[in-house]
User: Fold this.
Amino acid sequence: MDILSGGRDADVFRHGDGLVLRRYRDGRSAEAEGALMREIGTLGYPVPTVESVAGPDLVMELVSGPSLAVAGLRGDVSPPESGRILAELLDRLHALPWPDGEIRLHLDLHPFNVLMSERGPVVIDWSNSRIGPPGLDVAMTALILAQVATNPGMLTGDPVLRAALPAGVTANVVSDQLTGVLRSLVAHTATRCLDHLPEAEAFRRGDRFQSEDELARLRDAVDLVVSVADAPPPDGW
Assistant:
């Protein structure tokens, strides 16, 4: 199979006509994630259509289009618009009418997990999803954006992520872009995130895929989220 992309814990392969297979490297089951994606899709939220799940293998629709991260860094989507897209996706997710009345969170909704398809933004990678308060979901997105804005080496220093970026993208460009996305997210989401920022920080500190350097700089990201959330939105945003 031809590999299409990869992240810190999984690889994505082309899998026949119009399909991809995502496989967890540690062998953990993707069945709960696949079931959740099917339920979310039934409720009208934009996710890839799931074909089948078997152990660590999740076969789903191939969504054509760049990630929001790549579209933003090559100038196709502005930072204010990127932030609005993330805010709208979070708000839509938290408003879904689940039969049990509980709210499902994504907890990893960042620009690489949003694909800009012809039918609009599509959200992928639901492995962290759980029930919880919307503010935690917004805080997690804000903190992830701030982590890369304050430590762009997380992006430019990772060979897999670097290969997905447009040519000529520097660390300064990444930092400036994502700070703008963060400001727009905070300005446009319906949910205030600061009350849940400590929990989001604890969640990131418990993430086994965070490096020692990333954890050492995490407080810088928290401080950036606080400063942005406390500031008035820029004119026109």
The first helix runs from residue 31 to 42.
